[in-house]
Amino acid sequence: MQHALPAVPAALIEQLRAVVGETGVLTGEEVAARYPGYFMDRIAADAIVRPRTTEEVSAVLQLCNAAGQPVVVQGGMSGWVRATQTKAGEIALSLERMADIEEIDTVNRTATVQAGVILDTLETALAEHGLTFPLDLGGRGSCQLGGNASTNAGGMRVIRYGMMREQVLGIETVLADGRVISSLNQMIKNNAGYDLKQLFIGSEGTLGVITRLVLRLRERPTSSNTAIVCASDFSQIVDLLRFVDQGLGGLLSAFELIDNNFYNVNTGAGKHAGPLASDKPYYAIIEMLGSQQDRDSELFETVLGEAGERGYFDDAVLARSETQREQIWNIREDLEHVVREFQPFYAFDVSLPVGRMQDYIAAVTEKLKGRWPDSKIAFLGHMGDGNLHIAIGAGGEDDRHGVEACVYEPLRPIGGSISAEHGIGLEKKPWLDVSRSADERKLMKDIKQLLDPGNILNPGKILDLHP
Description:
Layout: H1 10-20, E1 25-27, H2 29-32, E2 47-49, H3 54-67, E3 71-74, E4 91-94, E5 101-105, E6 110-114, H4 119-127, E7 131-132, H5 145-150, H6 158-161, E8 168-174, E9 180-183, H7 197-200, E10 209-216, E11 218-219, E12 223-231, H8 234-247, E13 252-259, H9 260-266, E14 282-290, H10 293-309, E15 315-318, H11 322-333, H12 336-341, E16 345-351, H13 357-371, E17 376-381, E18 387-393, H14 400-408, H15 438-451
Parallel strand pairs: 2-4, 3-4
Antiparallel strand pairs: 1-2, 5-6, 6-10, 7-11, 8-9, 8-10, 12-14, 12-15, 13-14, 13-17, 16-18, 17-18
Helix pairs in contact: 1-3, 8-10
């Protein structure tokens, strides 16, 4: 439980201004105006501190640690679990002014960046070098790379490139007491003792503040092939996933599931054009990225043709232009309609073995409809890596716990995760025991206590340091 905090002392605010400059500290109405109407992370901090360098971050944290002042790190504010939510008496530490791409090394295929660089900005800079940083997610135009690492972001291409932690070679982190741990490794292989960066990747700013990163780059794909298929039975989609992954020889870059409910919410009059009939239970978007368009298109069509002959889908539409590709992906990525039509709106992000998905979908639907017969529910997500997103409109404003129980409790007996890629924050903290044992949670607390004994870094997120 989060308790009310005393106001940040005026003397500390002045000390922070001395470190980051007059325009580096925002207070009062300047804080409230930053994210007007922001629906996920309430901004109620007494101040937003905006350093420009790692040295300034270090000095800020030294002052805050000495004063016992809670600090919440904020990036692009595109998270879904309230990990960056602040309250009165806290300081928000924004890395927005640390936005330099320091180096693009085309020989070693690495990029060294400050934590505030926006994902899309890096991708644009890499294009002229024929390279790519293949993390791809809906918030690409606003999310920051430090936040991507802090939350271990996933997205559309995990099936091919892995999560964020697989794509980070080195990081620089500032600990709660201001110590700078600079581990800017540039090698794919470095087995010299503990891989300390992994402590901070996915820790949601509770163990340290990531200030710089070394990222692994890949050769930029020069061909793309995309299709959307529909199926009458979930087993078809399961078989299709294995078949296309094998048939495309490592070039499968996305395999996205959409159920009938989500497909119908996003297609139709005044919405996106539906390329396939709207009466099928399941749909999947398949994308292949490669290097030679003619050769890759022939392979893509051959593999899909064979899959169709085997009965792994009922119908398919292949994108014949970039416009058609965008139209297909808009059906998956546009959340505007589902947020408006599913009220009160709840969004979930879970992970489980692909072989368990059909039974899990049925169990969640049965529990939800059993309690709220008029509820709305839709499933979609990165099926290729076992990640389901669930959109629900059910109950009233006071029914959150009951809705969450319908989603999370069925994960318990199958060893599923309450968070595939969004993290824990405040939103999922009450359910952490579904996916982490008592011993695991105790070790997490021990690590937090070791690195942040004053509990000033994002206190109360993921877990409570004290019972």
